[in-house]
Design brief:
It is a single chain. The protein is mainly α. About 60% of the residues lie in helices and about 5% in strands. The protein contains 37 helices and seven strands. A five-stranded parallel sheet has the order 2-3-4-1-5, sandwiched between helices. α14 crosses α15 and α25 packs antiparallel against α26. The protein starts with 9 loop residues before the first helix and ends with a helix. About 45% of the residues are buried.
Length: about 725
């Protein structure tokens, strides 16, 4: 055992043990079955938190005793605690893997200088908005990361979000945006993020107002990059981003990298000189840049005529040039000339033709690796090994996967590092899409569904349920997806990400929903919350039939926060489990009562609400209150304003306490509305004022209480 300080970084400990064993970096790499670059990066601190399997390989190669192994592992835990866990400004932990969505992609070492584009980018940051709109393979991300690494770009605080399809949930989208801004300029996103947790669907302007106010008080400039914005198709996100652009303070500069123009008033912004645009024609390589790329990056020696031919036939499209360069590597001069002469076609045909050339020219083990892992949006050595080998791959397979990833990046085979430590990567989207279309007779590749299931299992074991659910759905593993959704739903509802749950549930087939009454009821309540009442009865019927045909549901799986509106979760109301099957039936009748009342069908709503109340235990005040709100709405729709006011008043009185404040607010608004319809404006005013006075005693008022003030203003 060596006398080394346990507080030293991993790299320093590793180097001390290697020197003590009399080994060079190359010798340690050979013993541990890792690359020499990996050893060098670890010792220099480029990589500070290697995987446990890497630690095991190194410890075995160095023949370390148990105490030294423990010291190495603890140094990694310290590094990860300080650098790999994303936390929101208030300290709330976020899924640690998703730090890759906020990481600024590293600039490649060998790049073609593009001074003209760098200058346009830098000048564009004097205005509020810069848009990079160009097809896949135009190197928008590469250009931005290179600008960030330049002397001009490195001086500015920069927040970066790499978007994907899961970010179409508005709450999720803005949570990443606010967190990215706060990481760039600590304190800027904290107020908006705090408001976001208590916001309802119509109150995003107030949340963004908090952000704008914080940015207006910030001294200096901040850049926010939203990469791959084309994956966003949620209209509420587009509307609110346009609102933000319209009200941007001078300190914030927004950059959108996208394959399609964002749905914003670009024409008006152009007329006002408030948008800088870089498009496909701007990003294309010139003949000079093509020459530099093929010579410096791809290390090819081509004649000027051959370079010009490739530039013409690819129209300066960078992905096409890279594919051509990979295909030309290793060819003789005569073979290269023949290849260039035969090279033609549109982008789509170039990809089809060259991918076969590039893929089939790789060693067989690399082909197998590529065709297995192209289903992944993010890649790491342990994940890739699991997809290749199935459950519990041996340590040597993880080390082999790391070597392949490093080799692909080193050889520019369309692999992009997502963090500075080279632990997480992604394929270029175009390359991954094309690989998924490939069929090869020489290699036996499992069906994509099998690969997705392996990936889902790995993510589940890491506690990354959102990513596990995505792969389970993609692999048609619907029963597993349903199980994982039930586990993930409480945390998502607590963060207001009901849209994400709704997206998952819509992806499940009817057969699964019919067999999962918990999820059927959850989806029905989500539809009510989203003001989409057309499908509520269908899912309530699924739940009711399952309830009648099967034994009562397991209470551990069926918690109250899977039944109630996401608003209740944001209000911090604690979860309670239904006491028996009667309570489950009651929630079905409560949902029906509220929908009937909203549609003005009091003849249905009133008996439905009474049916819910009859099935509920008298001590279950929250569930009874929801049913009574349905009853009050039914009385309102019937014109029985006195009964409505009395019902809402009973709810308010029974729920006087901070944990039920949402119910109190809803009851106060309902009672005041009934009194107003009765012509009792003075009493309605008193109801609003008493509710406002009560809410003012709470430590953290809810944005929903704004409805009390707007109601009072209407009365006045």
């Amino acid at each position: 055992m060596m006398d080394v300080s346990e507080d030293r970084p991993f790299g320093a400990l590793l180097r001390a043990h290697r020197v003590g064993a009399g080994l060079s970096q190359e010798e340690l790499a050979e013993r541990s079955q890792l690359s020499q670059r990996t050893i060098s990066d670890l010792e220099r601190g480029v990589t500070t938190a290697p995987y446990r399997d890497t630690i095991v390989l190194l410890a075995d190669a160095l023949a370390l005793v148990e105490s030294d192994r423990t010291a190495l592992e603890e140094s990694v835990h310290r590094a990860r605690a300080s650098s790999t866990t994303v936390r929101e400004p208030d300290g709330s932990p976020v899924d640690p893997l998703l730090i890759t969505k906020l990481a600024i992609p590293s600039a490649r070492g060998a790049l073609v200088p593009r001074r003209r584009l760098m200058e346009r980018l830098h000048l564009g940051l004097q205005g509020p908005l810069t848009v990079l709109s160009a097809p896949a393979g135009s190197c928008k991300t590469t250009l931005l990361s290179a600008w960030r690494a330049s002397s001009e770009g490195s001086e500015l605080p920069l927040g970066w979000v790499s978007l994907d399809e899961t970010d179409n949930d508005p709450t999720r989208f803005w949570r990443y945006v606010f967190t990215a801004l706060d990481r760039a300029a600590p304190g800027v996103g904290a107020a908006a993020l705090a408001r976001l947790r208590h916001a309802e669907a119509g109150s995003m302007e107030a949340v963004l107002g908090a952000l704008v106010n914080a940015l207006a008080a910030y001294e200096g400039d901040i850049v926010l990059v939203l990469d791959d914005y084309h994956v966003i198709d949620a209209e509420p996100i587009h509307w609110m981003l346009a609102f933000l652009v319209e009200h941007l303070p001078p300190s914030l500069h927004l950059v959108l990298a996208t394959r399609a123009d964002p749905p914003m008033p670009l024409a008006r912004l152009r007329a006002k000189g408030e948008v800088t645009e870089l498009r496909a024609r701007d990003l294309r390589f010139s003949v000079e840049e093509t020459t530099a790329f093929l010579d410096t990056v791809m290390r090819l020696s081509l004649s000027p005529d051959e370079v010009a031919a490739l530039e013409t036939r690819t129209e300066g499209w960078i992905a096409g040039l890279q594919l051509a360069g990979l295909s030309l590597q290793g060819r003789s001069s005569d073979e290269a000339t023949a290849f260039v002469a035969a090279f033609t076609g549109s982008h789509r045909y170039i990809v089809d033709y060259l991918l076969d050339e590039v893929l089939l020219r790789q060693p067989e083990h690399v082909q197998r690796f590529l065709l297995h892992t192209c289903i992944l949006e993010r890649l790491s050595a342990p994940l890739c090994a699991a997809v290749l080998e199935g459950d519990d791959p041996p340590a040597e397979r993880i080390g082999a996967s790391q070597k392949v990833l490093e080799g692909l990046e080193r050889n520019n085979v369309f692999l992009i590092a997502m963090d500075d430590e080279r632990r997480w990567y992604r394929y270029h989207y175009l390359f991954a899409d094309a690989m998924r279309q490939r069929q090869t007779g020489n290699l036996t590749i499992p069906d994509a569904a099998v690969l997705h299931r392996r990936a889902g299992t790995w993510f589940e074991r890491q506690g990354l349920l959102n990513l596990a659910i995505g792969h389970a759905l993609a692999g048609g593993w619907h029963d597993k997806a349903a199980e994982l959704i039930k586990q993930a739903a409480p945390a998502l509802l607590a963060r207001g990400e009901a849209g994400t749950i709704g997206t998952w549930l819509r992806a499940l087939p009817d057969t699964t929903m019919r067999a999962q009454p918990q999820l059927a009821i959850l989806y029905a309540w989500l539809l009510i919350d989203m003001r989409d009442h057309s499908g509520v009865e269908r899912y309530l019927q699924y739940a009711q039939v399952a309830l009648e045909d099967h034994n009562p549901l397991d209470q551990d799986e069926f918690t109250a926060h899977l039944l109630f509106r996401s608003d209740l979760q944001q209000e911090g109301i604690p979860s309670e489990e239904p006491g028996d099957t009667g309570n489950i039936r009651a929630m079905i009748w409560s949902a029906r009562s509220i929908v009937s009342a909203i549609h003005g069908d009091a003849s249905q709503a009133i008996p439905q609400a009474h049916a819910a109340l009859d099935a509920l235990d008298a001590t279950d005040m929250r569930s009874r209150s929801l049913a009574m709100i349905g009853l009050g709405l039914a009385h309102l729709s019937q014109g029985a304003v006195s009964r409505a006011a009395e019902t809402f008043r009973e709810v308010a009185v029974a729920n006087q306490g901070p944990i039920y404040r949402l119910i109190v607010v809803l009851a106060a608004v309902g009672e005041a509305c009934a009194l107003r319809l009765a012509g009792a404006l003075g009493q309605a005013r008193g109801t609003y004022e008493r509710a406002i006075e009560w809410s003012s005693t709470l430590a953290q008022p809810s944005l929903l209480e704004g409805s009390l003030y707007t109601g009072l203003a209407d009365i006045l």
